[in-house]
Amino acid sequence: MKKEKFHYEDQRYVDKITTGQEKGLKKYLVNYVDFVRKYVKPGARYLDLGCGAGLSSNMLSKYYDVTGSDYSKPVLDYARKHFKKIEFKREDARNLSFKDNSFDAVCACGFIEHINDVDRVLNEMLRVTKKNGFVILVSPNWFTPLRAIRAFINNKGYETIGRNRIQIIGWFFKSVYYTIQKLINPTYVFRNPDIFNEKLVGNDIDMVYIANQYDLKRFFEKKGCKVIKINADTFTYSSIPFLAPWLGVVAKKV
Ligand SMILES: C[S@@+](CC[C@H](N)C(=O)[O-])C[C@H]1O[C@@H](n2cnc3c(N)ncnc32)[C@H](O)[C@@H]1O
Fold first, then answer.
1. In ligand 1, which atom is closest to the CA atom of 8?
2. Does 38 reside within a domain?
3. Residue bearing the CA closest to ligand 1, atom 10
4. For a substitution probing ligand 1, which of 72, 77, 94, 95 has the most ligand atoms within 8 Å of its CB?
5. Ligand 1 center to residue 52 CA distance, Å?
6. How far apart are CA 12 and CA 77, in angstroms?
7. Rounded to whole angstroms, how far apart are CA atoms 117 and 16?
8. Range of the domain at 75
9. Is residue 53 a contact partner of residue 59, using CB atoms and an 8 Å limit?
10. 31 within a domain of the structure (yes/no)
11. If exposure means fewest CB atoms within 10 Å of the residue's CB, which of 86, 127, 179, 187 is most exposed?
12. Are 220 and 151 a contacting pair, CB within 8 Å?
């Protein structure tokens, strides 16, 4: 495996992911599970990519033959210890060891926005998906002005879009600009946080790719897939496709 330092193995991130799981992550992951269940049939062979400390894989195992996978060793050790019946595999999503056409569904929650080589990972996800199978990406949609409006009203800043109301207003205009720009310019938008030197951890401060339906839809359509959904409507306020605070991109490999 590569030698570069992987920040999800840094103790601060491991603590964040594992304690987050212990403190109420289930409430949010229920939306992910309910969403994928609309598309993926029970009994399917399911890859839960970027599964973190394993809670989603465990929840999904009620319906599917699940393999949970992540690249962070300490996080996976935690998953294995807590969910003994689930199969977990340490994998770098950029270079999966699975054979072509291995899974009926290859899905990830809160994952793609942490990837700085988006095309490569999406190609890998598609490669290991069987024909007529699904690739599903559930992710916060920071592009929608609704997130900024909600943060402004609640006066609750996020490291990603602004820590106070002034910064949030700035992000609002940026999100409108990005949306217009996306329609004419198909390049990905990345952030470049100083991950190892950040004092704060969490609230997606380590997010590198600003995930959005425009890029993801374009990628899958270019690959000949059928994109059948772009918004994860099981999450609150997410029923309007292009404004949804939660993306739920469902691509069928045809
Ligand atoms: C924000 S956590 C999300 C965990 C979980 N899916 C959730 O929703 O709570 C992102 C996860 O992606 C994993 N990850 C990041 N880059 C990866 C890569 N190249 N290959 C595999 N996993 C990766 C990290 O180790 C981390 O556990």
1. 25
2. yes
3. 111
4. 72
5. 5
6. 16
7. 23
8. 7-143+189-252
9. no
10. yes
11. 187
12. no
